[in-house]
User: Fold these one by one.
Assistant:
Number 1:
Amino acid sequence: MEMVEKADHAQAEMLKNFEEKINRGDAIEPKDRMPDGYRKHLIRQISQHAHSEVIGMQPEGNWITRAPSLRAKQILLAKIQDEGGHGLYLYSAAETLGISRDEMIALLHSGKAKYSSIFNYPTLTWADIGAIGWLVDGAAIVNQVSLQRTSYGPYSRAMVRICKEESFHQRQGYEIMAKMMKGTIDQQEMAQDAINRWWWPSLMMFGPHDSESPRSGDAVKWKIKRHTNDELRQKFIDKTVQQAEVIGLTIPDKDLKCNEATGHYDHGPIDWDEFYRVINGNGPCNKQRMDHHKKVHQDGAWVRAAAEAYRQKKEKQSLN
Ligand SMILES: [Fe+2]
Ligand SMILES: [Fe+2]
């Protein structure tokens, strides 16, 4: 009994220190003691973020060989390569919490870990590459700028680096759209068709409305999350509507209008049935994305084996 009381006391003391630190605005570092719930929340969020960066390379990779110019191909290649790098920073950040990259990949392959549903939509035309950069990376930036101030040190530092590259991604997408809107009628229609298909899934990237988001409570209290889903979505809408107007694209929402009282754009209802359908595995490309990831992971087994053999050889040499 006494032992239990002692353990309870130590636990309460740890929690108190942890919360004081969070309230002071100090970063939590890997060696600091932290509540289990905090660690678990971060592992889930950071690994999901890492998986999204890597799976997101697939829809864009679909257009590397068909980019309309050498310049466009170089830019797209650089962008996709950046996304691979983002995945690596984030896997490393998650590993500081005591999970291995192999474990994270296994959870992804078994369907227990998720990635952003936006990447379960197909890229049908070149304009989709513009729409992804402009809208999807644009939405990611809003979220990631906010996460630069997240309470876990390694995650926050990864975000600072990632955000520098994301603004280039957003600009390359917007440039594609702007160029197409100055082109032929067919090109303009292609650009409009892309925004028609990508607009609503981009709004869904911020997750359910605050009133429907049960996990937000702890995440806000622990300063993992610095802004709510609806706040971030509103920021994205406000900046993007104006960008669409400048190049002559129409946002596919008849209810969209500037609310003079709030100074923000009000939007029409989001189709949450579609959101949950895609999250639960029934989007247009879920199976294709997962099958491809598994196959490439399998094909790359020899690289991991070679790297491990090299590591062991070096270790032996340093012992001699
Ligand atoms: Fe990224
Ligand atoms: Fe990006």
Note: The chain has a mean pLDDT of 95.
Number 2:
Amino acid sequence: MSRDVTSQSDISKSKYHDESGAFKRAASSFRDSIEKGGKFEPEKDRYHLYVSYACPWATRALIVRKLKGLEDLIPVTVVSPRMGGEGWPFLSADNFPGAQDDPLYKSQHIKDLYLRCSPDYSGRFTVPVLWDKKHETIVNNESSEIIRIFNTAFNHLIDPEKAKVDIYPENLRKEIDELNEWVYPDINNGVYRSGFAIKPEAYEAAVKQLFNSLDRLEKILEGKEYIIGDKLTEADVRTWVTAIRFDPVYVGHFKCNIRDIRSGYPNINRWMKKLYWTNPAFKDSTDFDHIKTHYYWSHPQINPTRIVPVGPVPLVQDL
Ligand SMILES: N[C@@H](CCC(=O)N[C@@H](CS)C(=O)NCC(=O)O)C(=O)O
């Protein structure tokens, strides 16, 4: 009989809280890189990316895959946004528009991939998953590392114009790293720490920290097109995936309602809209049906009716 992994797959049974009621995100487990001469060589037709359009972390990987023109090199499979008791389902387990079947193993759920390569795996079954078809294992399931891999590892195999795209350039690394240091805990994960808190004090601390950091970001974006320097970097990608979900989901579902982006943060809104409407890597990686359905459906501990709100209208304002 197979091992009971319900406590790892069912988010409503998550034990990821400390005694103060604060949400603690577990660290990712698969942390390999793709490099010449390494266990995972950069090659065509070897790697596969599993994502959910709902997930901000997976969307980082989707955006960078497209910015770097890696679509032919690294095919992608999209799961259903309705993450239930067994985690993320493929189309065969949950027929949702836009969901797909696992082309490699006909898995029913993302957890099947984790257990296929690591039967004793005791962590959460998260997306994104970067899979190696040769060794039949997960190379990496940490989006911040997957986007760095995509940024450089395949440069010799892609269109030279795309190879020149560098979202983590040497001269801006220090600034990018410093920004990541607060944007990740306060904003990217801050919305989750607000929404998943199970005590009022933990929620209030998280939501105040979140809005303080949004205020800080708003000032940084004053008169600027990109967050760091005058070019698109991973700082924009990493921050944008949270900003685009903010008004449609986090304001309501995660109680991040001190302000919304469209009326409270004109600079963030301008930056966010511009990337959405003018750069296909951003718009094409965004599916609001999957985003809204995922959050409002998948956390019955927060929204037991699973009703998905109609608004906001529009989901993203015009330029
Ligand atoms: N650190 C990971 C986090 C990924 C993550 O937490 N993904 C969420 C979806 S937004 C997930 O798959 N959660 C499933 C679960 O926790 O059971 C990354 O950035 O790649």
Note: Residues 11, 28, 55-57, 87, 124-128, 141-144 surround glutathione (CB under 6 Å).
